[in-house]
Design brief:
The protein is an alpha+beta fold. The protein is 26% helix and 27% strand. The structure holds pyridoxal-5'-phosphate (PLP).
Length: 309
């Protein structure tokens, strides 16, 4: 996957050159995964690049930090970080949109397992990133396996946060899927209910009703998930948050994944069960979503934060 450099990365108040944006090899976050992050997308609109749900993403970043003291001691507010993202998009010249990656991590200075004496640091990077699951995935859909890895348990690592270390779980499931010839993996919860993909929420369409796992089954409270639920209801579909088991997926009329990276991607095969081409419900919700993020749906205009030039 291409990973194009931009000019600058913001690190605790300074815009530093991309290649100079480094941390010490003994920074404890590198060793123990004790940090939090966000993934955000900006899209091109008629008014310029616009960030989708910028404040909700930054609020989730600071909520994640509250789960992991002393990351919550970071002094930047959501309002500060909004300004940084705007400035970074301008400085890096992302007129056609970009991906935005804020992170709060532990600064160099301590190396024990107790993070409390460490100092939290913040950084935000942006770069131009195309479709996450492949160029034609948005139309053709992806092949998904059921992972042999369970989604991290609620009392193992809080699924409500986006902590760096929890992505060991996602990456193991992703590697297993790629090695088995699939594009993506769905993980079940410890008690056997469908949780989510490795970096996406999951929706299941049966007899015109859209179902998605409730948060108590362990998925991240996806910001795209919330937007898609609103869109689907506005389009007149019934959307239910309810526990799903694996056979619900095998028997579904349609399945799709949502997330900042994957946007809204149809699933065309689940663990050997063929679901066929993108279905009508998936297409209707996806079309509205992809229009909304590009500023073409007035009802959802307040989801976008336009970056003035
Ligand atoms: C594990 C996981 N689930 C779901 C999502 C989708 O969340 P969002 O729509 O907020 O990007 C993500 C991406 O952040 C994720 O990492």
């Amino acid at each position: 996957m291409p990973f194009p450099k931009a000019d600058k990365i913001w690190m605790d108040g300074e815009f530093v050159d991309w290649d100079e944006a480094t941390v010490h090899v003994l920074t404890p976050t590198l060793h123990y995964g004790y940090g939090v992050f966000e993934g955000i997308r900006a899209y091109p609109t008629d008014e310029g690049p616009a960030v989708f749900q910028l404040r909700p993403h930054l609020e989730r970043l600071l909520r994640s930090a509250r789960l992991y003291p002393p990351l919550d001691e970071i002094t930047h507010t959501v309002a500060d970080l909004v300004e940084v993202v705007e400035e970074l998009i301008r400085v890096n010249g992302h007129t056609a949109g970009c991906y935005v990656r804020p992170t709060i991590y532990l600064g160099y200075g301590e190396i024990g397992l107790n993070p409390l004496p460490s100092t939290p640091r913040a950084a935000i990077a942006t770069w131009e990133w195309g479709s996450y699951l492949g160029e034609d995935a948005l139309i053709a859909g992806v092949r998904v396996m059921l992972s042999s890895f369970r989604r991290i348990g609620k009392n193992t690592i809080p699924p409500a946060g986006k902590a760096n270390g929890q992505y060991l779980n996602s990456s193991l499931a992703k590697v297993e899927a790629i090695r088995a010839g699939y594009d993506e993996a769905i993980m079940l919860s410890e008690d056997g209910f469908v949780a989510e993909g490795t970096g996406e929420n999951l929706f299941c369409v049966t007899d015109g009703v859209i179902r998605t796992p409730p948060l108590h089954d362990g998925p991240l409270a996806g910001i795209t998930r919330a937007a898609v639920i609103r869109i689907a209801r506005d389009l007149g579909y019934e959307v239910v948050e309810t526990s799903l088991v694996r056979s619900d997926l095998y028997l579904a009329d349609e399945l799709f994944l949502t997330g900042t990276a994957a946007e809204l991607t149809p699933v065309r095969e689940i663990a050997g069960y063929d679901l066929g081409d993108r279905g009508p419900v998936t297409e209707a919700v996806q079309t509205t979503f992809l229009d909304a993020v590009r500023g073409r749906v007035p009802a959802y205009r307040d989801w976008l934060h336009v970056v003035a030039s």
